[in-house]
Amino acid sequence: MTSTFPDISISTDRLVLRPFEAEDVPALAEMMSDELVTAWTSVPHPYTTAHARDWALREAPAERTEGRGIVFAVTEFLTHRLVGCVHLHHTDWRALSAEVGYVVAPWARGEGYACESVLAVAEWLFRDQKFERLELRTAADNTASQQVAQKIGCISEGVLRNAWIGRGRTGDGGWSELRTDLIIWSLLPEDLDEMREQPAGNPGYAAAFGDWS
């Protein structure tokens, strides 16, 4: 029988991670139309309101109910504004491992929201779901995503050569597909334990778990 994650929400000091709702569709469409999202993900381009509605109301719920993973809309605690998305996928229920992907809205970047939301999901995955491994894959030129992996304590395990197709701008303002390497990162429960023992100075981690210590 296929295993599934529970239908839950996760709260941190600044964020609420919850299932997508119909009201999120306009903000989701805007977020996923950003140039960096187009460049580093495989989402359709142009990304339309119809794409956002299908993802929020059909595809994202099916990830959980069909046992593939779980999708969280990331919102600000105070404003309820959509700031991003965290997606657990490629879930292996026997090995208790999953891969995580994340997107942050352009206006919300630089606030530590990616670190905070991914760490909150990792803590829940390890503590409540008893998983043993979380994996991230970042394109070789996507330095922002690599910084997130490093800040939350991930270990770089190697490179998958020529394994990803990104997008780059063409001279006429369009987009062309570009092959690139993927860097593999992993996070284990003991890595989070080591993060807790580090001196203060990691705002993302402190914000994520300040109310759980």
Secondary-structure element series? EEHHHEEEHEHEEHH
Distance between the termini: 35 Å
Alpha-carbon Rg, integer:
17 Å
Largest β sheet strand count, sense and barrel closure: 8 strands, mixed
Can you list the strand order of the major beta sheet?
1-2-3-4-5-6-8-7
Total number of β-strand segments? 8
The portion of residues assigned to helices is 25-40%
Number of helices: 7
Q: Which spans have pLDDT < 50 for at least 5 consecutive residues?
A: 203-213
Strand content: 25-35%
Please state the overall shape, judged from the principal axes of the Cα atoms. globular
Please provide a written account of the structure.
The protein is α+β, with helices and mostly antiparallel strands. It is 33% helix and 31% strand. It has helices spanning 25-32, 35-40, 49-65, 113-127, 143-151, 189-197, 203-209, and strands spanning 10-11, 15-18, 70-76, 82-92, 97-104, 133-139, 155-169, 175-187. Strands 1-2-3-4-5-6-8-7 form an 8-stranded mixed β-sheet, with helices on both faces. Strand 1 (10-11) and strand 2 (15-18) form a beta hairpin. Helix 1 packs across helix 3 (49-65) and helix 4 (113-127) crosses helix 7 (203-209). The termini are far apart. The relative contact order is 0.15. Mean pLDDT is 91; it is low at 203-213. It holds the Pfam family Acetyltransf_3. InterPro entries: Acyl_CoA_acyltransferase, GNAT_dom, Ribosomal_N-acetyltransferase. It comes from Streptomyces hiroshimensis. This is N-acetyltransferase. Residues 15-181 form the N-acetyltransferase domain.
